[in-house]
């Protein structure tokens, strides 16, 4: 559960903190995916492509770090 305290009646700052926490938790992404039903085959394909994307990004960072 995400919880934010409002200090000195500064609601704008509390709202910014709340949005940042929700972004870190991945709630916005989850809400977007749950808007519509996703077939199991579509979910499997999406997760596979996300995994491939993560792997490629990791390899790219490794090559940068190693100086290749």
Helix and strand run = HHH
What kind of sheet is the major sheet? none
Percentage of residues in DSSP E strands? under 5%
Separate helix tally: 3
Q: Fraction of residues in helices?
A: over 70%
Radius of gyration: 18 Å
Short recap of the structure:
This protein is 74% helix and 0% strand. It has helices spanning 11-25, 27-34, 40-66.
What labels would you give this structure?
mainly alpha, 3 helices, 74% helix, flat, single chain, 68 residues
How is this structure best described in words?
The protein is mainly α and 68 residues long. It has three helices and no strands. It has helices spanning 11-25, 27-34, 40-66. The N and C termini lie far apart (43 Å). The model has no long low-confidence stretch (mean pLDDT 93).
Q: What is the strand and helix layout of this fold?
A:
Layout: H1 11-25, H2 27-34, H3 40-66
């Amino acid at each position: 559960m995400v919880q934010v305290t409002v200090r000195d009646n500064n609601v704008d700052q509390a709202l910014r903190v709340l949005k940042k926490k929700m972004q870190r938790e991945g709630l916005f992404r989850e809400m977007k995916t749950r808007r519509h039903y996703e077939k199991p085959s579509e979910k499997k394909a999406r997760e596979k492509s996300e995994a491939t994307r993560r792997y490629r990004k990791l390899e790219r960072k490794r090559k940068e770090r190693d100086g290749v």
